Amino acid sequence: MSQGHDKKGRPLVAVTGMGVVTSLGIGKIDNWAALSQGRSGIRAISRFPTDGLRTTIAGTVDTLNSTPYSAPSLSIAMALEAAKEALDEARVGSNGAFPGPLFLATPPAELEWPQRRALYERPPTTNDTGYRRLLASARGSDWSEMQSLFQFSSVANHVAQRLGTRGIPISVSTACASGATAIQLGVEAIRRGETDIAICIGTDSSVQIEALIRFSLLSALSTSNNSPEQASKPFSKNRDGFVMAEGAGALVLESYRGAQMRGARTLGFIRGCGEKADDYHRTRSKPDGTAIIGAIRNAIDDAGISPDEVDYVNAHGTSTPENDKMEYLSLKAVLGDRVANVPISSNKSMIGHTLSAAGAIEAVFSLMTIRNGLLPPTINYAVPDAEIPMDVVPNVARQANVQTVLSNSFGFGGQNASLVLAAP
């Protein structure tokens, strides 16, 4: 690396600001305090009735609920909260005029059951029933406010307007890889010279009754309702599914040279990005792991490093029986025998799975791991799985000198993305 470029002659991409919101709290200070102490943010759902549901727990963010509440409005509120913290730290764009583009990861926006029910129960304007009545009611209502929230690009549009970003905001929805994909798009834009600065955000408020039922029907969720804080147990033999969660992560990315010119502090670098699609199944990974292995290798190759230089892995680690085993097998294929000794932990054991936001939130946590020299633990690790012989940093945080982190994000639909983050 020389004069602000990497080994491949591309602009180095620096992180100059970070912000985060999760079930553990708002802001990096509260989140890091909880992570380093091994505290869980999983709790019983209070937002809607859960009678009769198989899963009644989640990692909810209950302090930012807007009125009237909706999933998109909470996604916007969390994104803006994380962005404010990131912009303040980067000392840029706090006046509502961010000098670069927005890349935002978000789930597809759709009318949830409460909104559909409210529309259906309006005084009928037609004798039709069912879906035709719903459409007629929608046409007869003040559709503009609902339309401004419930369309795919709505969250990004609202956030871009508030932050004053440049150009058309880019919305990304690649399932649980979305947050990492948004960061990759920002990195690539800077490398191509299209911008010197970008803000990348992942935000997700999918803890809604409809989404909860959908994931439950897939048998993907933990049903450990009686002990919420112990429900998410990645890599443990007794893991029984992931815990839905919500949150947001924001990163200000800049060309290293541009950051230096304006006197910004560099918190770390995004050294490499890798992705690879899996065409095997909508919810399962290809048994030979080639797509996940490919995403990890692509990120390491893009970073211009060898697998031996990875000091720590921020695992996808969802706590589902299949995903955790596939991640181990894929890491073993890339890291070789080092897979047994490299620390590999999952913060989803504490915050749950934040879905579209996960890659961005975990990128923030990865850089905080580097800066603080402390490995967040995998809590609830009481029953080791003999088929996953890894150092998961069990239950208690550990001090370590970390220079390079591999952060994995794998999603339904065959979406796989990995990032390599490094110390400044």
Automatic annotation (TrEMBL):
Pathway: Lipid metabolism; fatty acid biosynthesis. One of its GO terms (cellular component) is cytosol. It comes from Hyphomicrobium denitrificans 1NES1. One of its GO terms (biological process) is fatty acid biosynthetic process. Its EC number is 2.3.1.41. Belongs to the thiolase-like superfamily. Beta-ketoacyl-ACP synthases family. SUPFAM superfamilies: Thiolase-like (SSF53901). GO terms for molecular function: 3-oxoacyl-[acyl-carrier-protein] synthase activity. InterPro entries: Beta-ketoacyl_synthase (IPR000794), Ketoacyl_synth_AS (IPR018201), Ketoacyl_synth_C (IPR014031), Ketoacyl_synth_N (IPR014030), PKS_Beta-ketoAc_synthase_dom (IPR020841), Thiolase-like (IPR016039). Residues 10-423 form the Ketosynthase family 3 (KS3) domain. This is 3-oxoacyl-(Acyl carrier protein) synthase II. Keywords: Acyltransferase, Transferase.
